[in-house]
Specification:
Layout: H1 3-13, H2 28-41, H3 47-56, H4 60-67, H5 79-99, E1 104-110, H6 116-129, E2 137-144, H7 147-155, E3 157-158, H8 160-163, H9 168-174, E4 175-178, E5 181-184, H10 186-189, E6 192-196, E7 208-212, H11 217-220, H12 223-236, E8 237-244, E9 259-262, E10 267-269
Parallel strand pairs: 1-2, 1-7, 2-6, 7-8
Antiparallel strand pairs: 3-5, 4-5, 8-10, 9-10
Helix pairs in contact: 5-6
């Protein structure tokens, strides 16, 4: 399959799945390779044949949706983001939780892939912050639509490439190196609970202090979906709770109101109920 042929195909099919081509431009190789394998399975000689197959088999759109899930992840991705989380955001949220007599700090990682992001938060909390907030527990809900990735996350065994970006002290404390794999120690796994969930569908939980949805909704989905899900995230946050997007992402125009904490880092806060100021 030629790249230009796959580009034209993606530009045709993505809008029909409420996705946008702009988010796929630089990472399209993942999707193109998967689509090529699927065409081989179906004995489709070219993309024209696969397009006709889609038009005649509505259930194939769900398969194509799964082929277009892009995964780029590692521990401690975007170091500055995690520095700000550990030094400013999480301490502020922890103090606010204690002020309302909460006993648990609740975080939702949407689109957690194979667990690197929620486990990074767990490691950072235990090594940097737990001693300052001994009366406060940590609970991380980590969701993804890919059951294969969730199985890898639950195993918590990683290659060097996944953990190389971690601070050396964190890596030494959190992992045991065995048979060429970095295996996460149990204490850092305990706060993390994994759930098979499509971010586009309702989540039956709420009341989060922090939600992370990085490099997913606000990269790959169209503006209508982005606005709807921004509203969902806002509803799932406690007043004063924080939403973190990818550093190159922004909330869509016309969506629900958030306070900008850091435009550079794409950090937003749900305003308190008595905040009537306009955005």
């Amino acid at each position: 399959m030629k790249d230009e042929d796959c580009v034209r195909f993606l530009q045709w099919c993505l809008p029909r799945m409420k996705m946008r081509w702009r988010g796929f431009r630089r990472v399209r190789a993942q999707a193109c390779k998967r689509i090529q394998r699927r065409m081989t399975e179906l004995s489709c000689p070219d993309l024209g044949a696969y397009r006709r197959y889609l038009e005649n088999n509505a259930e194939e759109w769900d398969v194509l949706d799964s082929l277009c899930r892009i995964t780029v992840t590692r521990f401690h991705r975007d170091r500055l983001v995690f520095q700000v989380l550990m030094q400013e955001v999480l301490p502020d949220l922890a103090r606010a939780a204690l002020a309302r007599d909460a006993r648990t700090l609740r975080i939702w990682c949407a689109g957690c892939a194979s667990g690197e992001e929620p486990y990074t938060l767990s490691i950072g909390w235990h090594l940097e912050l737990a001693g300052h907030f001994p009366e406060l527990g940590l609970e991380i809900l980590a969701t993804d639509i890919d059951s294969g990735l969730l199985a890898r996350a639950a195993l918590a065994h990683y290659p060097w490439s996944a953990v190389s970006n971690l601070p050396a002290a964190w890596r030494a404390a959190a992992f045991e190196l065995r048979d060429g794999e970095y295996r996460l120690r149990p204490v850092f796994r305990l706060p993390v609970r994994f759930l098979d969930h499509d971010v586009r569908t309702p989540l039956p939980e709420s009341g989060f202090d922090l939600i992370l949805c990085r490099n997913l909704v606000f990269t790959y989905f169209d503006p209508d979906v982005q606005r709807r899900l921004a509203g969902d995230f806002r509803d799932h946050l406690l007043a004063g709770g924080v939403l973190l997007l990818g550093i190159h992402e922004r909330l869509p125009e016309g969506g629900p109101r958030f306070q900008v904490v850091s435009e550079r880092l794409s950090l937003y806060r749900r305003p308190p109920p008595d905040d009537t100021a306009r955005p």
